[in-house]
């Protein structure tokens, strides 16, 4: 499964960790692959380290974390690679790494950088090129789109969904990466509108501040289970209410 977003800093890593935590709780073997980590220097914690922290201790061999490229400046992967003098990561490398992980894992989560069409190399390759590279290896994948709750999200979500359809990439569904504690009217209305503009189901939302509040394996699993739909291992039933348990009071 590919995990991408409509932008940066919207909760992709937390959603990735939440999906991983629920799969691990079911006894499944999970791999999390980060093709390109930017804005992090040698020895500093990156997104896969945050996933490890959030899911906590697991049985040996149940969780594998992998990073293909690391670049110190917080830029798009292609730009960060060029400025650092380090080799970029291309879709073929990502597909081969995911295929290797799929051999002995039940679920492989590939977390992209920024949005779907962020450039990874000088040829303009993006995460959207990975499914085709996987198909060349005889593998299929779906994509989970992490989006925001408030004003402006409908446009960026619709554009991303349109780009996926144009490339024949299946969109499993949407997850709101940071649902506000006090949602405004736009956020509440977007619960109904997001699935319409994306032509894909809303599979839940995670509360804003989950990481800041010191989420650990137990709290992350509990939150993920109640806030994510069965397609992701949770129990949220998709009813027209706030995914984190508060009445949405959607009105037009």
CATH superfamily: P-loop containing nucleotide triphosphate hydrolases
Number of helices: 8
Helix percent band: 25-40%
Note the overall shape.
globular
Distance between the first and last residues' Cα: 35 Å
The main pleated sheet reads as: 7 strands, parallel
Per CATH, the architecture is 3-Layer(aba) Sandwich
Strand percentage: 15-25%
List keywords for this structure.
Rossmann fold; seven-stranded parallel sheet; globular; 252 residues; disordered C terminus; single chain; 7 strands; alpha/beta
Can you give a write-up of this model?
Helices cover 36% and strands 20% of the residues. The chain has a seven-stranded parallel sheet with strand order 3-2-4-1-5-6-7, sandwiched between helices. The protein is α/β, with parallel strands linked by helices and 252 residues long. Helix 4 packs across helix 5 (130-136). It has one domain (2-232): Rossmann fold (3-Layer(aba) Sandwich). It is built from eight helices and seven strands, in the order E-H-E-H-E-H-H-E-H-E-H-E-H-E-H. Strand 2, helix 2 and strand 3 form a beta-alpha-beta unit.
Give the helices and strands, then pairings.
Layout: E1 2-5, H1 12-25, E2 30-38, H2 47-55, E3 63-71, H3 77-84, H4 91-103, E4 107-115, H5 130-136, E5 143-147, H6 153-166, E6 171-179, H7 185-198, E7 202-207, H8 217-227
Parallel strand pairs: 1-4, 1-5, 2-3, 2-4, 5-6, 6-7
Please provide a brief summary of the model.
With 252 residues, this protein is α/β, with parallel strands linked by helices. Helices cover 36% and strands 20% of the residues.
